[in-house]
Amino acid sequence: MSGNEPDNRRVVRFIPELLSLQKSAMNTVITNIGGYRELITKKISPPMRKTLYNRAMEEIDEIGGDKVWAALPYLEQHKTTENISTKDFASMFRLESVLGTNFRPGATMEEFLQYLVECVPNLRQLEIQDPRTSRSKKRTYNKIELQPLATGLLLKMKNLTQVSLNDVSIQFSGFVSVCTDSQNLQSIKAKEISIDKKTIISMKNILETLDSKFDYQEYNGQMFPIQIGITLKKTNAGMPFRKVTATLSDDFLDRIPSRFMHLQICSMGNRDIVCERNYLLRILEKEGANLKTLGLKFIRRALNLTFKDIFEHCNELETLNLFQSFISENDSIASFGQLKKFEWENTNRNVSLRLATIFSAPLLQEVDIISFNIKLGDKDSLFSKISNRMILTNFTKIQIQNLVNNIGEYDPSIEEMAELESVLNSLGGIEVSIRSIFVRLG
pLDDT at position 333, please? Predict the structure, then answer.
């Protein structure tokens, strides 16, 4: 090497030491991040604060959620953030044991919402989810309940348009307050709205006041009268949308706005047979004229429900979903002119279904069936009507899973289903999937 040439070896030798020093400094800050607070904004540049934030969130379990929470307002201001879910900050929350003897330190829900008010001014979409949901299925901590203070903080988020509450409870009064007083709210979903006896009395009148504000409404009464679920949206679709999920064990349907178009009813089997049948028929008589979709789950044989009972009240019904329900199909549904989709799932070996009855619906487009004992009825007549396009003229899709007892004996339905598949495929333009599945007897 000549005397005029620079000696680069010393530079190369010190690079690892410089990198090691930077890494050591980063590790020191991360380890003690909860104690720095204001020093973070005073001594660390914004790009490096962003790096620290990302590193802290990645290693939050090792650092401790309470320490990261203490530093959060100084690490990341979220000035431009529009969408936040509490599940992304799950380790930061304080959770008290159901026994009340220990807890995980960290932020309360109210403290976190206060942080959002102060540090996330452009927040538009907020999902509040029980921190345990994304981390563990064990219910070892008390359920989070949004107190009035939390409701007030939600109202302070002036740009908020969407709110979703999952696995956290809110009082009915608090939910209504957010719906009516939040300035820019476009949609809200809450699965666990707490109800008391006083609320039940006035609930329907209060919910009817929201009609003019939200044209999309969903109500879930499966936990009524303890809790209900509600989803409300502004869609400006022109036509209102109202969907209800209920049981036959209470009067939930009498406690919400009527004129719903989509209804799913589940029998809990804890009511007198006569009372349950009369209540179901009263619902169909009262609401059937508006129904486009009807789902029935676990309807017992003793109710003696028939297709005629359903369609004489539901003249505009387009979709019928029957799950593990006993429905007599002795009467033809040819007169039920608006039916477009039929779904049937029943794994009871003592229930049968005649396809000739279902296929007679004149506007039928889709069929989805899972069942034992699927019968064609008069096979020759049925195949002739299909081939000559006397029925199924609007058909686009059919799926059938023909369940067959695996007892080593021949089942004629296997051959019949294969013949049906061939006839339907010959028409063209129909998505056909028909399978016979052997099921071992238990």
Answer: 61
- For residue 51, the enclosing domain spans 30-74
Burial, 256: exposed, middle or buried (Cβ in 10 Å; 0-12, 13-18, 19+)? buried
Residue 146 phi/psi, 5° resolution? -75, 115
- Go through 236-252 and write b for each residue having 16 or more CB atoms within 10 A of its CB, e for each that does not: eeeeebbbbbbbbbbeb
Average pLDDT over residues 48-52: 79
Residue 248 lies in a domain: no
Q: Residue 35 domain-assigned?
A: yes
What's the pLDDT at 249?
A: 87
Q: Measured between alpha carbons, how far is residue 362 from residues 28, 146, 365, 393 in Å?
A: 74, 51, 9, 8
- The more confident residue out of 65 and 434 is 434
Concatenated DSSP letters of 359-421: HT-TT--EEEEEEESEE-SSHHHHHHHHHTTSS-TT--EEEEEEEEE-SSS--HHHHHHHHHH
Q: Give domain status of residue 44, yes or no.
A: yes
**Residue 102 CB burial class (10 angstroms; 0-12, 13-18, ≥19):** exposed
In the predicted model, what is the mean pLDDT of residues 69-81?
81
Q: What is the mean pLDDT of residues 313-322?
A: 94
185 in Cβ contact with 211 (< 8 Å): no
Three-state DSSP at 55 gives helix
Peptide bond just before 225 cis, omega within 30 deg: yes
From residue 422, give the alpha-carbon distance in Å to each of 174, 192, 358, 431: 59, 49, 19, 12
Give domain status of residue 37, yes or no: yes
Number of domains in the chain: 1
Mean pLDDT of 310-317: 91
Q: How far is CA 189 from CA 163, 230, 431, in A?
A: 6, 6, 36
Beta bridge partners of 84: 126
Q: Is the pLDDT of residue 39 over 90?
A: no
Q: Which two tokens stand for residue 402?
A: 């023909």
**pTM for the full predicted model:** 0.85
